[in-house]
Automatic annotation (TrEMBL):
Protein name per Swiss-Prot or TrEMBL: ABC transporter ATP-binding protein
Organism: Tianweitania populi
One annotated Gene Ontology cellular component of this protein: plasma membrane
PROSITE patterns: ABC_TRANSPORTER_1, ABC_TRANSPORTER_2
Pfam families (alphabetical): ABC_tran, BCA_ABC_TP_C
SMART domains from the UniProt entry: AAA
Single annotated GO MF: ATP hydrolysis activity
Signal peptide residue numbers: none
Record-annotated ABC transporter domain positions: 2-250
Length: 267
């Protein structure tokens, strides 16, 4: 679905992304892992139009989307979340969801004056859809809570809910588990799997919790120093010597290989 070819991003003389080529298969959950500073979030930003590449190409379902701005990619069904949730803190959870779809009737002054009935009808439709999203994510009890009062994990669930308010084709989740307790992380993981299986969402997930990645993902891509280090199934990646060394360093590599269970937790 997404094909990245020879992607390079330089900041001055620093190569944050250095010749990356990879594919994200349609209908799958793909993990993107690597040490801090590996270039994972920068790659996400390049694909999602937040940064312009120095060189390289990105296609989505065969269409060249290189360098398109985020709002255009949003309209094409490519969505990206961030490590820190970007909620409207003074609005309720329900209102946060209802704000997502673009080109709403009430956004124009003409409609606000002369098409109030159409605006009210659209608002009822959006409210019904948002209520369904809250039910799906087991967040209905927080519908009237100000989004700024939510915990980190609850805000991540709301961000996931925002992707459900439009016709998302692929969603890039950046460190969905950051600052989230284990119980809520399990809930988030279950929601991702359900969206993948029941609604056909394609996901690419940055996450440091290898246990979480192994439970969710069909395949895993590993980055280090701006390059793709390895690709494969989660169980293959956990035991990959290059991957273990990239995370743990040469001194701990042999210990990790001798105790793969420990390696899986450490990665």
């Amino acid at each position: 679905m997404i094909v990245v070819q020879d992607m390079i991003k330089r900041f001055g003389g620093f190569h944050a992304v250095d010749g990356v080529s990879l594919e994200i298969a349609q209908g799958e959950i793909t993990g993107l892992i690597g040490p801090n500073g590996a270039g994972k979030s920068t790659l996400f930003n390049l694909i999602a139009g937040v940064h312009q590449p120095t060189s390289g190409r990105v296609t989505m379902a065969g269409e060249d989307i290189t360098g398109l701005p985020p709002h255009v990619l949003f309209s094409k069904g490519l969505l990206r979340t961030f490590q820190i949730a970007h909620e409207f803190s003074s609005m309720t959870v329900l209102e946060n969801l209802m704000m997502v779809p673009g080109n709403q009737q009430g956004e124009t002054l003409w409609n606000a004056w002369f098409r109030r009935g159409a605006i009210a009808q659209e608002e009822r439709r959006l409210r019904d859809k948002a209520e369904g999203v809250l039910d799906f994510l087991t967040l209905s009890h927080l519908r009237d809570e100000k989004a700024g009062n939510l915990s980190g994990g609850q805000k991540k669930l709301v961000e996931l809910g925002r992707t459900m308010m439009v016709d998302a084709k692929i969603v890039f989740l950046d460190e969905v588990g950051a600052g989230v307790n284990r119980t809520l992380l399990k809930t988030i993981g279950e929601a991702i799997v359900r969206l993948n299986k029941e609604r056909g969402y394609t996901f690419c997930v940055i996450e440091h919790d290898m246990d979480f990645i192994a439970r969710l993902c069909h395949s895993v891509i590993v980055m280090a120093q701006g390059k793709v280090l390895a690709t494969g199934a989660p169980d293959e990646i956990i035991r990959n010597e290059q991957v273990i060394e990239a995370y743990l360093g040469t001194g701990l590599k042999n210990r990790a290989l001798a105790q793969p269970e420990t390696a899986a937790l450490t990665l």
